[in-house]
Amino acid sequence: MAAPFPPFEPDDDTPAGRAPANGTRLRDIPLRTLFPNILTLLAICSGLTAIRFAIEGRIQLALGAIILAAILDGIDGRVARFLKSTTRFGAQMDSLADFVNFGVAPAMVLYFTLLDELRPFGWISALVYAMCACLRLARFNVQLDTPNRPDFQQDFFVGVPAPAGAMVVLLPIYLVLLGLRETLFLDVLVSGYVMAIGLLMVSSLPTYSGKTLGKRIPRSIAMPMILAAVIFVALLLSYPWQVLALCAIAYLAALPFFHNYYYKLEAQHRRDEDVARRKRSEGRVKPAAAAPGTAPKKAGAARPAATKPARQKQGRAAPK
CA 71, CA 205: separation in Å to the nearest integer? Predict the structure, then answer.
């Protein structure tokens, strides 16, 4: 009797129901392979639950669900690398989770909170943001297959990443929860702000990723970093909307510095490439230097090997 579900093949391109090309039986997969995928599914559930809370008018719970989805999204990839269970299946599902959690969920929360008063214009703003998130994630997946990227580009994203975009686009809700009065004029500003953040996501603006930041740190700052992390979490739990609003404003203010830093590194990379190219060209053009104390050989200095036999043949022809 056939199994009701096809076998889980996270890294196999063989279509379901067809035997592998080499005819071997598929091996059982380790349980650790499933754990990162479970975290990704929990993140999707959290993002969808945020939409439900927004429909019911429980905005604080909706924001909390999006934050939980962001936390799960941040650890599932690291857990997969730690357990050595990274798969193409997990990478594709993580991309779909990002679209739901940081594209659809924030757009729906904003619409049911601030943009619903604008009716079609508010809905168009939400759609633009969600579609920009989709395009940004598709471009990110394509760029993963780009080989021979310079080392400095590994520390930068192209455009605002989807998780950061979701945290930043919710800034108007943070301010409303802090006491900002909601008016029609504010809703219009929020509509333009949402579309602007969406355009930043699909733009070519370089943004710092921090992927290589903190892989190894000096021992002298280990304890201060632990204390700083504890203090940040304590502030986030005690004053969530103030901390999130400050983080969003700080991130937007840092975008010009990311831009300048990227192009400074790019100019330095080009100078290094020009110097290396010039050295290679000089090494090919410059002739090999002669050894000291040796005179150069002339073209006619060496006698042909046929002269000796000819001389011997001439001596035999005229003996004394």
Answer: 25
